[in-house]
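Fill in residues.
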């Protein structure tokens, strides 16, 4: 148990990883961890898109299309091409990208925000599993991940949404992180 608590404590957001491919059996372990997250009414509203190799191209094209739509005003053709390439490369920052979407259940008793909370729990499980397996991982979002183009690329419906793009790979990167003390975050009522 102490080991598990240590794992939670030592997980860090790692944005720089090598190109070394992640074996399928490790990917499946990470997905399995995600799939065991809790969800109200056990709706399990998550959907995973596993992007490796050229499978990352569609994500790159989405980043590039969004960048051109949002940032290309006033740019020369050469600058637009550079912006396209830079944005496309974002999808290739790790050998494995797992896009995690929330597909909220339609039943009227299901609360939409809880569905997204459940998917966040699923992502945290995946980050911990990746860390346990010795990988570096980062949960990325940013304006592009909520853009209609991104939704279209992943075939998401109106009420669905991308909750995170989880980039995973081997890394030697060491990062420190800080937390506000639990005393400042906690009221004890007894
Ligand atoms: C919803 C969400 C979105 C995030 N998006 C990004 C992101 O786009 N880029 C990034 O560098 N980190 C992103 N992060 C990671 C946070 O920056 C990171 O968790 C925080 O700085 C604390 O660092 P630690 O995870 O190493 O403790 C995101 C985290 C969450 C929960």
């Amino acid at each position: 148990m102490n080991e598990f608590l240590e794992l939670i404590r030592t997980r860090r957001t790692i944005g720089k990883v090598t190109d070394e491919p992640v074996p399928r059996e490790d990917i499946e372990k990470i997905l399995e961890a995600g799939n065991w997250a809790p969800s109200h009414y056990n709706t399990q509203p998550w959907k995973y898109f596993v992007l490796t190799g050229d499978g990352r191209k569609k994500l790159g094209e989405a980043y590039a299309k969004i960048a051109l739509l949002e940032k290309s005003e006033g740019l020369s053709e050469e600058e637009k091409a550079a912006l396209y390439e830079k944005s496309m490369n974002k999808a290739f920052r790790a050998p494995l990208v797992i896009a995690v979407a929330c597909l909220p259940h339609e039943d009227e008793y299901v609360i939409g925000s809880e569905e997204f909370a459940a998917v966040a729990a699923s992502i945290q499980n995946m980050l911990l599993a990746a860390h346990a397996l010795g990988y570096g991982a980062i949960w990325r979002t940013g304006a592009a991940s909520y853009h209609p183009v991104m939704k279209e690329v992943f075939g998401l419906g109106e009420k669905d949404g991308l909750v995170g793009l989880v980039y995973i790979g081997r890394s030697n990167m060491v990062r420190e992180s800080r937390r506000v003390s639990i005393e400042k975050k906690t009221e004890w009522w007894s």
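The two ends are 27 Å apart (CA to CA).
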